[in-house]
Write a structure and sequence with these properties.
mainly alpha; about 80% helix
Length: about 70
Amino acid sequence: MAMFNIFTNVLFYQYENEGKNVIGNKEDFNSIITTMVPLGAFLGAFTGGPLSSIGRLKAIFILNVVIVIGSGV
């Protein structure tokens, strides 16, 4: 987690340069991003079982679709 704090500092400045600064305070941004990591691990633990039952290739495809939709591209 110590390295993640350094990463979020870099990520915040890129986020700010893109003009997407909904969260203007760097400490609030760091705490929100750091909160998302355990939540992602929690959700990933529960989705891993059902996804493994459909096969590796289909699971990777489904996760890629979810990531593309989630990133807003």
